[in-house]
Amino acid sequence: MKDQEDKYLDDLTKKVFRDASLKSPSSDFIDNVMARVTDYSQATVYKPLISKSTWTIIFLGFGALISYILFFEAPTETSNWLSSSNKILFVKSSISDVLSGFKMSKTLMYAMMLLALMSFVQVSFLKHYFNRRLE
After folding, report:
1. DSSP class of residue 28?
2. Is the pTM of this model over 0.85?
3. What is the pLDDT of residues 28-45, one digit of tens each?
4. Residue 21: partners with Cβ closer than 8 Å, 6 or more residues away
5. Are 109 and 79 contacting, i.e. CB atoms less than 8 angstroms apart?
6. 121-124: which pairs have CB atoms within 8 A and are 24 or more residues apart?
7. Residue 106 buriedness (CB in 10 A; 0-12 / 13-18 / 19+)
């Protein structure tokens, strides 16, 4: 019985393919497709998630925080890394107890700030470069 069903399906598919004719596209098919593709490419407009004014506010705030730490902090050779976090949070946790003895020299702090600044500059230049390349 299985063989009869397979033979029937085979004959049916042969008949369908024999009766079906090849269809050719119209003469202006390529023009129609390219017109639709052009319409879709113009519809996409890039809009950033974070606007330039928001980025400016974020970086100004970050710069103000860095300048406050550098110029208005008590002048010492080493600064306690978590001393200001205890003032802000009013909570002593086990992490702050473990890291409370960690002292960072001013040279290391300046090096870390310079690294952050140079990374920011490099990212902005690379972003500008790749935006120009995609235009």
Report:
1. T
2. no
3. 888 888 888 776 655 566
4. none
5. yes
6. none
7. middle
